[in-house]
Specification:
Layout (H helix, E strand, L loop, with lengths): L5 H14 L25 E9 L4 E8 L10 E5 L7 H10 L2 E4 L2 E4 L9 E6 L8 E2 L6 E3 L1 H18 L8 E6 L2 H16 L7 E7 L5 H14 L5 H9 L3 H9 L5 H14 L40 H6 L2 H6 L18 E2 L9 H9 L4 E6 L7 H15 L3 E10 L2 E9 L3 E6 L6 H4 L1 H13 L8
Parallel strand pairs: 3-6, 3-9, 8-11, 9-10, 10-12, 12-15
Antiparallel strand pairs: 1-2, 2-6, 2-7, 4-5, 13-14, 14-15
Helix pairs in contact: 3-4, 4-11, 5-6, 5-12, 6-8, 11-12
Length: 461
């Protein structure tokens, strides 16, 4: 029992809160008391920096929203956006599956936030992304997948020092787009580290519209365009024979697009039209900068410009001084926070590193893997992802345990799914874009819940 002496009441209350897992003594300075314009909530939020390299003063920024209810019993989920070079805070947390979305001067609740089911940790990675920084600007040059995976591993190790109560918690890693590289590569390092010191209780990974194998993913775009009526028969033929998309992207990032590829891409661009959002071919709105994480995967013709004709409320919100103060964030070496980094020089040739092989290693190590696709995305279409998952299952000798079928959200078809060996899954989210939780939040939450529980997607409504 607590003493009634005034001097001991505060200590007693603090001890009780600590026992309940409500106060993090080593992370108390990272607690967010209240975000500007935020509605009242019961769950705790934390944000700030974790140093990953003392010598070069490199620090990664995170935002952590504990589960709405029963946080102590819910798993920990690390969310990574792609790019490479785009923000998990601005894109993931504040535009997709976090607890709030900016609206004018305020924040509104996202009723389909993923922290309904898990404790959500959003990481701005690699250094140079969002609020993450290095005081040595040369650190932004030549950043690649290997460096990113290593820094992400160091981040998690040091984050657990600040939040030790999560050290043995079930851990899942989820990401989208170029996180098809980040997530498997980080998971592989975690398993290697565990052989020396058991630290990470990794229970599964999920990859949304991910880059897994350069040629398959990029060249599936032509069939998607053609099957959705975006290009003609003639253009489809040259787009699959004269110059396919993987060749064009390779030439583009090598700085020398051939005349033949330039001609083919010009024709493709003319027919698909700059007034169609390539990340959601059914969307009748202008392209917001929340989709900029995929611009790296969708290099534009020199003559083509994108009209960003909607105000990006997330960018405006995160550039407010009072918001940055509440987040314990600061701008280092840049004037403004941006959804995707303007200072990071990433090794884009790493696009061609196949990570589907790493996914296979994880499955063989007993780590469940879900690959999911918003089915209206033409940037990384579902057809390529489905093909890669099926080939991997065949290579690993995994038999189909859930045959290809529909799944439901309420009384509507939420998408389609297939499971191999009860460990490797593929699912589509019907009507969803590249950023599935943004465009189909309720269906994405159903998929997320099933993934965490290790259950097949709902077969009935």
């Amino acid at each position: 029992m607590c003493s009634l002496l005034r001097s001991s009441i505060a200590m007693c209350v603090a001890l009780q809160l600590l026992q309940l897992g409500i106060v993090h003594p080593s992370a108390s300075h990272l607690r967010i008391t209240h975000l500007p314009g935020q509605p009242q909530v019961e769950f705790q939020q934390f944000s700030g920096y974790v140093t990953v390299d003392d010598r070069n003063q490199q620090a990664l920024f995170f935002y952590f929203a504990e589960a709405e209810k029963d946080a102590a019993s819910k798993p920990l989920v690390l969310w990574l956006n792609g790019g490479p070079g785009c923000s998990s805070l601005g894109v993931g947390a504040f535009s997709e599956n976090g607890p709030f979305r900016p609206k004018g001067e305020a924040l509104v609740r996202n009723q389909f936030s993923w922290n309904r089911e898990a404790n959500m940790l959003y990481l701005e990675t690699p250094i140079g992304v969002g609020f993450s920084y290095s005081t040595d600007t040369s650190s932004y040059e030549g950043v690649n997948d290997e460096i990113t995976a290593r820094d992400n591993l160091v981040f998690l190790k040091n984050w657990f020092i600040k939040f030790p109560e999560y050290r043995n918690r079930s851990l899942f890693i989820v990401g989208e787009s170029y996180a098809g590289h980040y997530v498997p590569q980080l998971a592989e390092l975690m398993l290697q580290f565990n052989k020396k010191e058991k630290l990470f209780n990794l229970k599964g990974i999920a990859l949304g519209n991910p880059v897994l194998e350069f040629a398959t993913d990029f060249n599936s775009r032509a069939e998607f365009f053609w099957s959705h009526g975006l290009i003609s028969d003639t253009t489809y033929k040259v787009f699959t024979s004269v110059c396919n998309y993987s060749r064009y992207v390779r030439e583009y990032y090598n700085g020398a697009v051939s005349p033949v590829c330039s001609s083919v891409m010009s024709q493709v661009s003319t027919e698909t039209s700059r007034f169609v959002d390539k990340y959601d071919v059914t969307l009748d709105v202008c392209l917001s900068s929340v989709f900029s994480q995929t611009k790296v995967l969708n290099p534009q013709q020199v003559t083509e410009t994108i009209d960003v004709c909607v105000e990006d409320e997330t960018v405006n919100y995160l550039n407010r001084k009072d918001v940055q103060s509440a987040l314990h964030a600061r701008l280092v070496g840049v004037q403004r926070w941006s959804a995707c980094s303007n200072v990071l020089d990433y090794e884009l040739r790493d696009l061609e590193i196949p990570t589907i092989t790493v996914v296979g290693k994880l499955v063989q190590e007993g780590i469940p893997v879900l690959v999911y696709s918003g089915d209206q995305d033409s940037v990384i279409p579902l057809t390529g992802s489905r093909t890669l998952v099926h080939k991997l299952a065949k290579k690993l000798g995994l038999k189909t345990t859930v045959p290809y079928r529909v799944w439901f959200e309420k009384q509507q078809v939420g998408g389609w799914t297939q499971v191999y060996g009860d460990i490797l899954s593929f699912a589509t989210i019907r009507g969803a874009s590249h950023e599935a939780p943004f465009s189909q939040p309720e269906r994405a939450l159903v998929l997320f819940k099933s993934f965490l529980e290790g259950r097949p997607m709902p077969q009935e409504f």
